[in-house]
Fold this protein.
Amino acid sequence: MRLLLRTSITLGILLLTLSLRAAHIIGGEITYECLGWTDGDPNSGSRSYQFYMNIYRDCQGGGAPFDAPNAPYSATITIYRSDLSEDFMSFQAGFPQVEFIDPDPGNPCVIVPNNVCVQQGRYTFPVLELPVSEYSYFIVYQRCCRNNTITNIVSPESSGATYFMELTPEAQAVCNNSPTYDDFPPIVICANEPFLYDHSASDTEGDQLVYEFCSPFLGGGLNFDQPTSFSGVAPNPDAPPPYTPVSFVAPFYSALDPLGIDADININVNTGVITGIPSAQGQFVVGVCVKEYRDGQLLSIVRRDFQFNVTSCDPTVVADVREDDIVNGEEFLITSCGENRINFLNQSYQQNRINEFFWVFGLGDRDTTITTWNATVNFPGIGEYEGRLYLNPNTDCGDTARIRVKIFPDIAADFDYEYDTCVAGPVLFTDLSSSGTGGVNNWNWAFGDGKGSSNQNPEYSFSDPGDKSVRLRITDTNGCQDSIRKDIPYFPVPALLVVSPSSFTGCAPGSIFFDNLSTPIDETYDILWDFGDGGAATDISPDHVFTQEGIFSVSLDITSPIGCQTDTVFSGLISIEPSPVADFTYSPQELDIFNPEVQFTDRSSGASEWYWDLEGDAYSTQQNPSFTFRDTGLQEVRLVVTHPSGCQDSTVQFIDIVPKVTYFLPNAFSPNDDSVNDIFLGKGYLEGVLNFELSIWNRWGEMIFSSTDPLQGWNGRKNNTGDPAPAGVYICLVRYTSPRGAPEELRGFATLIR
C-alpha cells in the first residue's frame, strides 16, 4: 500500500524510555473531510483527506498530559488497509489544540464538584492522499490508560483505548465527509434526577444519521518495559484491527446500559437525544455511534466514547428562615408570646447565586414588602399571619419560603418554696406562674443536681447541702414558654446520724474506717468524732486505729454553716480483743549444707496455738520444733501465733544455709597399671561449683595435663595420651568458683612414682 502525505512527515517508530502511567483518558473520536481528487486531477486515482481527532482527559488527578512532541510520548497515528496485504504507515499527529471543557451541567442550581476537570485536545492530521480502493482504510490511535476511577468497566486502571475511523470503499467512491458531533456531553449529571441531552451530529451532505449506544474498545496496556509495543502504554505502530471491546462490570452494566440497568438510559435512534434517570453515583464510560447512510448504503460510523460523572446534586439556592418549627415539611412557623415586633433571620443559601430577594407579609388589610436581607415586622396584635420570602423569582434557580406567624399573649414563670432550714427534710415548691388566655399545661423543674420533676407543685429532698440553683420552665396550651431560676440556700443538719460499721469486733491493733452516711453534709460542716479511747477526728469519714483492748462508745457531733447542730452517741460500737505477739529464736546461728538442722524456740507472748511455715512446703504446730533444711540459701520461716481470743500475729525470719565445698588432693600416685593408685585425682564435695579446672605442671613450667571435669584425673602421661612422664615431683593447681561466686585456688604437689 502506498500512502502519500501532502506535508512532510517523519515516519518511523519513536522509542521512549520514560515510564509514565497515563490513567487520564476519558474519551475521544476521529472524523474526516474529503478534499477531493489529489491536485484536482481525477486521473491521479487518489483523494485528499483532512482527519481530526479529539481526545478528552481528566486534568484533575495529575495524570499524563496529552501526547505531543514535547510530552513523554508523541501521538502516533497508524493507517491500515482492511486486507492487511500491504505495509502499514504511521506518523506523528503533532501538537494538539488544548482547551478546557466547561463542566457546568447547564442547571444554575447545581454546583459542580471541585474535583471535576476535563480538557479536550484537538489534533489536526496532515492532509493524507489515499488511493481510492475497494478496501477500507483504518486510521488508528491507541493509548493506555483510562481514568482509574471509572465505575462500570473492569480494571479501568489497566484498560487502554482505541480510537479509529474506518474509511469505507463506499465513502471513498463518493468523496464523503463524516458527520461531526455538535457538542460534548455534560460532564456532571445528577443522581436520581431525570436528564435529557441532545447528542446529535451534523452532516454537510445531509445524509441519514442513525444513533445507538455502542462499546468502546481497548488498546495498549501497562507494559512499561516496552512502551511502544502493542501491549505498551503508547503503541507505535498502533495494533491492526479487529479490536476488543472493553469489559463492562456484569450484570449491572453493559454497552446498552452504561449507567446501570436501573438508570433506564436510552438514545433516540433518529435524533440522538439521550434520556434517563441515573441512580448510582460514580464515573461511567459511555459509547455512542452515529451511522451515516446515503440511499440506504452505510458510508461511515463515527464512534465516540466519553465519561459521565454522576453525583449527588443539591440545589444551590434554598430559601431558609430561622424558625420555631416546620409545618408539613414546607412551612416555617414562628411563634411569639407577648411580643408583636419580630425579627426574621434569613438563612438562605447559596447567597452568591441569589440575585434578587424580598419578603411579603399579610398584615390584615394590607401587605408589607421588605427588600432587606433580614426583616423586622411590627404585627398589629394577637393573631395568625402569613408571609413569603422570594429568591430569584420567575427563574429556573429560585426558591420561596412560606412563613406562618402566630402571636400569643404573654407568659410568665414564677415559683416559691419553703423548708425547715435547720433539720433536713423535703423542700416544697409552689408554682406561681401565669399565662394570658392559654393556661399553663406543662411544668419542667430542674433541681440543680441532675434530677427534676414534671409536677406543678413538687416536693424534693436534696442529698447534699449547698446553694441550689432551681429552674422552672413552663409551657402553655399555645406552646409559649418561659423560665425562671432561683438560688436556694440549703444547709440543714441530718435528721438522723448514720455511720458504718454499725458494730465492730476485732483484734488489737484494730484499724477502722468510719463511713459517715448521714445526709446532707459536706466539707463546710463542722464535724467532731470522739472514739472513746482518747482519740478524736474532724474528717467527715475518718480512719482510726484502736491500740487498746476493750469496749468503746463513739460519739459524732455535726454543726451546719448556719449554726444548726445535732449529735449522737453509738454506745459499745467497738470491741477490741487482745492479740498475741509473735517472736522466736533458733540455734545454731551458723548453718551449712553439712549442718542444716535447726532448733526453734518460741519467744511469743499471749499465744495458745503455734503454726510454723518452714521452707515453703513444710509446717509444724509444735511450740518449739526442730527442722532439717533440704536446700541451701536463704530460707523463709514464718511463725503465726493465736491468742485464746482468736486474734493472731505473725513474724518472719530468714535463715541462711551456707553451701560449702570440700576438696582434697593426694600427694603421690604410682601409674604402673596395677589398679592401685594409678590416677592422680582429688576428692571432695563440689555441689554448686562452677568453672572447675585442674592443671599439672612440670619443673620447667610446662603444663602437661589439664581438665575441667572434677571426675577426670591424670594418668601420668602428657595430656593422658602421650609418653609416660618421668618419676618426680609435679606442681598441681586447682581453680574453681564457689557456689556464691567467690574464686578459689588450691596448690599442691603430685609425686609420680615409677
The longest strand covers residues 297-311. The chain is about 0% helix and 45% strand. The CA atoms of residues 494 and 519 lie 5 Å apart.
